[in-house]
């Protein structure tokens, strides 16, 4: 049963269900919602995990959910007025990701959920032939076909992927399989949560999508940001894509064929006025004393 009509602003007491609430994007969204005073139902496979218990301590209602069980998803969505969701290829590959995402969309429609915010990926609609982009596009298409009031959030490259960067013999070396001189659009996972939470509280772009980013830098510019943060010399090394598994190889080669990501920076700032650029993200997330 698809829901008709346009969702209004969040009303006190409405339940917002967050799929994957102990994952990176889900937990970022749940924390932002809790900070706003929203009633959050945190959906996760293991309600006894440290991450789940931390959300409960912050006021979330914990509910176990299994994405391989349609009945479990339906029960988790019962009584929820809004849902944040995403699926991942990390546990079973792109085909399983699509299956999970479609199951989420169908359960949301059946449960009469009033509004869905679905996190996909930048470029999903542009026929990239990257398996984990195409899998997300299949989910987007199912959401569209069901007529659920929804907004698709399409994040670009995560700044958080750079957390493993470490000093090496007194210098910072940033390594990515992208030629230097190619600008890479990026966003902090925190800001995916902020954008998603703000949409859930005050729906916008219903029936549409937004590609979000907080910064755009070349490899050498990324290294420069690490140098400013650490006070150490820094350089960029462009790694070859040869030898990478097929999916990431296709993604990094796509990065090099501009335009790749095409984020709407203005809309991102409208949805998240405090969106982080790379320097601000490093200041808050990458400790100097390593």
UniProtKB/TrEMBL annotation:
Q: Name one Pfam family in it.
A: NmrA
Keywords from the named record: NADP
**InterPro entries per record:** NAD(P)-bd_dom_sf (IPR036291), NmrA-like (IPR008030), NmrA-like_oxidored (IPR051164)
Looking at the record, the residues that make up the NmrA-like domain are 15-269
Source organism superkingdom: Bacteria
Does the keyword Electron transport belong to this entry? no
Residues spanning the membrane = none
Could you say which protein family the record assigns here? Belongs to the NmrA-type oxidoreductase family.
- Protein name as annotated: NmrA-like domain-containing protein
């Amino acid at each position: 049963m698809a829901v008709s009509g346009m969702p209004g602003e969040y009303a006190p007491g409405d339940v917002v269900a967050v799929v994957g609430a102990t994952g990176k994007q889900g937990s970022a969204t749940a924390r932002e919602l809790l900070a706003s005073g929203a009633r959050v139902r945190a959906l996760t496979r293991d309600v006894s995990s440290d991450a789940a218990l931390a959300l409960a301590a912050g006021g979330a209602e914990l509910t176990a959910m299994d994405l391989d069980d349609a009945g479990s998803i339906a029960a988790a969505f019962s009584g929820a007025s809004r849902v944040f969701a995403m699926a991942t290829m990390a546990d079973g590959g792109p085909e399983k990701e699509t299956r999970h995402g479609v199951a989420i969309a169908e359960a949301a429609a059946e449960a009469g959920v009033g509004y869905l915010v679905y996190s996909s990926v930048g470029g999903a609609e542009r026929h990239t032939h990257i398996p984990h982009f195409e899998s997300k596009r299949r989910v987007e298409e199912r959401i569209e076909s069901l007529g659920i009031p929804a907004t698709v959030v399409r994040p670009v490259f995560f700044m958080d992927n750079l957390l493993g960067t470490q000093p090496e013999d007194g210098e910072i070396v940033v390594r990515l399989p992208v030629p230097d001189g190619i600008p890479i659009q990026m966003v902090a996972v925190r800001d995916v949560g902020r954008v998603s939470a703000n949409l859930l509280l005050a729906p916008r772009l219903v029936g549409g999508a937004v590609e979000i980013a907080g910064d755009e830098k070349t490899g050498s510019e990324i290294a420069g940001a690490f140098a400013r943060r650490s006070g150490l010399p820094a350089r960029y090394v462009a790694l070859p894509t040869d030898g990478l598994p097929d999916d990431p190889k296709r993604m990094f080669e796509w990065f090099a064929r501009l335009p790749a990501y095409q984020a709407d920076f203005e809309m991102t700032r409208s949805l998240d006025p405090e969106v982080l650029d790379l320097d601000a993200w490093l200041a808050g997330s990458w400790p100097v004393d390593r």
